[in-house]
């Protein structure tokens, strides 16, 4: 395995880490040489940061920041063009009665619905993301995975969310996973690549750290916790480990990569806990939709209700926003 076996168009591994990807043995040594994760420590720190209290103007800022980081998503077998158009309308104007409400970061759909989302969002600055590579299980051939990506990119997707082969990873076939991510990254062209680790299936924090570094080494622009189809999905401790990875990546290479927790984040209180973690673990620079996203459509509803509460001084029920 080398950095050039997948495709000549794949991004080169940054020089400080080039030896790590020279061959399968080097990659294994590097990944298993990463510091182990202190399970008690990371869980205690996550719990501690989760108790931080944010009030008044700072809370409104946090709510607006979280809204701007949402990837508004529909990934169901019953999705229709009409449902996607309705979702894009909400993405553009999350609270039509409050024109100052921020737009979301992106709308995420299956590849066959990308064109509809692109047409509906033209000129808005909202990205169109598409899952691909046999989402959510990823149990298909590389040829089909690449074809899946091509469908999305040809239809105009700005971002592609791929799933790694968890079976290969858990069996220690790191080179296979590395090369597949590289091939998908090359197939994305100008589209950004989010690499879904499906952390709920990785079993340990050490595996989450290894998978995070593997995805970064292979060229992922974002590392993402989950498909939202497996429980547990995103958790604060897992997100801490991933934030540590992108922070350490930046310190090693000078490059900025993003993190996206997805699944199970439903309340404003939850979102604020994640924003505190972003600030404390990775740094203030990551408090931007360019480097941090929420894959949690139901979260948007609570953010909008809490935004009204902050502005009006009293709680607004779900009748005042469009509830998905």
Shape call: globular
Cα end-to-end separation: 45 Å
Determine the fraction of residues in helical runs and give it as a percent range.
Answer: 40-55%
Q: How many β-strand runs?
A: 7
Described by strand count, sense and barrel closure, the largest sheet is: 7 strands, parallel
Unreliable residue stretches: 2-8
Q: Assign the CATH topology.
A: TIM Barrel
At the first level of CATH, what is the class?
Alpha Beta
H/E order of the elements?
A: HHHEHEHEHEHHEHEHEHH
Classified in CATH, the superfamily is Aldolase class I
Describe the model.
- Its EC number is 4.1.2.4.
- Keywords: Lyase, Schiff base.
- This protein has 324 residues and is an alpha/beta fold.
- It has one domain (15-320): TIM Barrel (Alpha-Beta Barrel), CATH 3.20.20.70.
- It has helices spanning 24-33, 39-49, 56-68, 81-92, 114-121, 142-154, 166-170, 174-188, 205-217, 236-253, 268-282, 297-312, and strands at 71-73, 106-109, 127-131, 159-163, 192-196, 222-224, 258-260.
- The chain has a seven-stranded parallel sheet.
- The longest helix is centred in the last third of the chain and has 18 residues, at 236-253.
- It is globular and about 60 Å long.
């Amino acid at each position: 395995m080398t950095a050039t076996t997948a495709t000549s168009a794949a991004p080169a591994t940054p020089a400080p880490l080039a030896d790590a990807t020279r061959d399968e043995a080097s990659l294994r040594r590097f990944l298993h040489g990463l510091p182990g994760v202190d399970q008690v420590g990371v869980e205690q720190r996550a719990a501690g940061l989760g108790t931080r209290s944010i009030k008044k103007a700072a809370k409104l800022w946090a709510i607006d920041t979280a809204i701007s980081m949402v990837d508004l998503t529909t990934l169901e077998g019953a999705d229709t063009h009409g449902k996607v158009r309705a979702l894009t309308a909400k993405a553009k104007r999350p609270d039509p009665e409050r024109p100052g409400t921020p737009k979301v970061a992106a709308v995420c759909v299956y590849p066959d619905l990308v064109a509809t989302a692109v047409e509906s969002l033209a000129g808005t600055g909202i990205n169109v993301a598409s899952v691909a590579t046999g989402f959510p299980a990823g149990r298909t051939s590389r040829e089909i995975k690449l074809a899946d990506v091509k469908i999305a990119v040809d239809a105009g997707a700005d971002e592609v969310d791929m799933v790694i082969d968890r079976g290969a990873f858990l069996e220690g076939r790191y080179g296979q996973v590395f090369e597949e991510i590289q091939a998908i990254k090359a197939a994305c062209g100008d589209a950004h690549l989010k690499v879904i680790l499906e952390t709920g299936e990785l079993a340990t924090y050490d595996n989450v750290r290894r998978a995070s570094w593997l995805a970064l080494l292979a060229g992922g622009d974002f590392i993402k916790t989950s498909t939202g189809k497996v429980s547990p999905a995103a958790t604060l401790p897992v997100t801490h480990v991933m934030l540590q990875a992108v922070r350490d990546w930046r310190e090693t290479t000078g490059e900025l990569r993003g993190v996206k927790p997805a699944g199970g984040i439903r309340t404003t209180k939850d979102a604020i806990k994640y924003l505190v973690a972003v600030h404390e673990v990775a740094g203030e620079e990551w408090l931007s939709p360019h480097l941090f996203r929420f894959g949690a459509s139901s979260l948007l509803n609570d953010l909008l209700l809490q935004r009204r509460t902050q502005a009006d001084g009293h709680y607004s029920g779900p009748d005042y926003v469009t509830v998905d």
